[in-house]
Carbon-nitrogen family hydrolase (Ornithinimicrobium pratense), 289 residues
Amino acid sequence: MRIALIQLAYGEGAEESVEERAARAADLVRNVGHDHDLVVLPELWSAGGFAIDDWQERSQDLEAVRAAEVGEAAEDGAGEPEWPPALAPLAAAAREAGVVLHAGSVVERTADPGEEGRHLSNTSVVLGPDGRVCATYRKIHRFGFGSGEPRLMEAGAELVITDLPAPADALTVGLSTCYDLRFPELYRAQLDLGAEIFVVPAAWPAARVEAWRLLARARAIEDQCFVLACNTAGTHAGVEMGGHSAVIDPWGTVLAEAGTEQEILSVQIDPGAVVKAREQFPVLADRRL
Ligand SMILES: O=C(O)CCC(=O)C(=O)O
């Protein structure tokens, strides 16, 4: 299974509209997609991970594409859903390249408020090679200690473990986002539901990049899963991003790691490595619950 992580760099919102940035990301997906099975983008690349003041304006309405995900649009005979601007070029690029695309996360805007009265969420979106949404995940652990995400966004409430479509169907995927990485119980819960590979888009700052690198390896080792950790590059809203995206195998071996600038990692992984690692070193069988 061949995987590409796109460690996208960006600056301030005013420098690049959502449409311009989405077109730039889609070009990268198109360039690498044709000879990969799964391509991954980082967290909140269209809105800016720390650009809190831009979130509302750069938020995306996913209602139509979510309806298509569960087949309602097809049943209605409505045809192609109306894509939000951050995702429209990416859906086209996934389709052209015939690749499964984890499109990172967007600031999702909902018409109805959630339980805490907010209309925004940090939502990851996965697109199939037909360009349709095949999975979504709302970030469960919000980062900001009372400001930022906890102030403006609803917390996700659902674990998402999913079998992606071909050509990325070799491993069961667990979805999570950035700050989630600090909460090992989330990954244990995903493991217990069958996860074999964790995909973690992020906008993790340079100031704590060693924690990012260490925790990504820790999650791989303790759950004997692959980890695809796709961070952001650049400086936005005054916060320098840490880069160091990585592909890590179930032994904790780093198969590839990016530097701090925009970069694309391209890695061939052996899906059989998960079962082999769990058989050769059956540590999970020794858990005491
Ligand atoms: O946990 C951290 O240090 C960074 C988390 C973060 O930036 C995020 O979740 O957006």
The mean pLDDT is 94. The helical segments are 18-33, 63-69, 72-76, 88-97, 149-152, 184-192, 209-223, 273-280. The first helix runs from residue 18 to 33. The chain has one domain: 2-286.
